[in-house]
Design a protein that fits this description.
The chain has about 230 residues and is an alpha+beta fold. About 20% of the residues lie in helices and about 30% in strands. Strands 3, 4, 5, 6, 7, 8, 9, 10, 11 and 12 form a 10-stranded mixed β-sheet that branches. A two-stranded antiparallel sheet has the order 1-2. Strand 1 and strand 2 form a beta hairpin. Helix 1 packs across helix 3. The protein is elongated, with a radius of gyration of 21 Å.
């Protein structure tokens, strides 16, 4: 299942390919979908490629090939006739329990996030990481960050872990969030609402809770998963 934004982007790319013979630029995609940054387009493109709807061609600028369209767009399109090739996967034995399909999604790792004192805000993709689809909601955008520091260690979050973040600007007290402080510093902390103030609380007694006027703190996402390598 594709999200609304993924379908909108796929339709926009398909129409531009039909009209011009070349896909739109990332800037054009960003403007068409009314997104704030190209990193959102990068995540949508990665998701569409992971699900087999598009293919990016190596060593060519703006080279995107549409492999297939969802049924909702196929019915609207007159110039696309997808072919479906059945594989040779054997049917399960009669009476066998069905095996749940487990899929992974490539998420962009947007850099490092401080689990300690705030560091400069993250905005550039450093690499991608495979994330189990079960961690994510179909109707939301997600990204990943590498944790730096040990202030959230008592919440089970260690330095070097990859955290999976669902994009949102809303959070409740007790949520672990990516918070942007004063417009340029990002940190991973537990958010606590205190009247007209916001407390960013560590999960390590070696770090003090920092309290800011509410207008200085902007939530950029909520923690929904964690990936650890051994």
């Amino acid at each position: 299942m594709l999200t609304k934004k993924q379908i909108e982007l796929l339709e926009f790319i398909h129409k531009r390919l039909q009209r011009d013979g070349v896909p739109p630029s990332f800037d054009e995609m960003k403007d068409a979908l009314d997104l704030r940054s190209k990193s959102g387009i990068h995540r949508l493109i990665t998701a569409l490629e992971e699900r087999g709807f598009i293919r990016r061609l190596a060593h060519k600028a703006r080279a995107i090939e549409i492999v297939k369209l969802p049924e909702a767009l196929v019915s609207q399109s007159t110039g696309f006739a997808p072919q479906v090739i059945d594989g040779d996967r054997a049917d399960p034995p009669r009476g066998a329990m069905p095996v749940a399909e487990i899929h992974a999604v490539e998420l962009p790792v947007m850099g490092k996030i401080a689990a300690g004192t705030p560091i400069e805000a993250i905005s550039e993709v450093s690499h991608t990481v495979a994330v189990p689809g079960q961690m994510m909601r179909q109707d939301a955008e997600h990204y990943a960050l590498e944790v730096k520091g040990d202030s959230m260690i008592n919440a089970g979050i260690n330095s070097g872990d990859i955290v999976v973040i669902r994009e949102t600007n809303a959070a409740e007290s007790g949520d672990i969030v990516v918070a942007l402080v004063d417009g340029h510093e990002a940190t991973l902390k537990t958010l606590r609402k205190r009247g007209n103030a916001i407390a960013l609380e560590a999960a390590n007694p070696a770090y003090e809770t920092r309290v800011y006027p509410a207008e200085m703190v902007r939530v950029q996402g909520k923690l929904v998963g964690l990936i650890r390598s051994y």
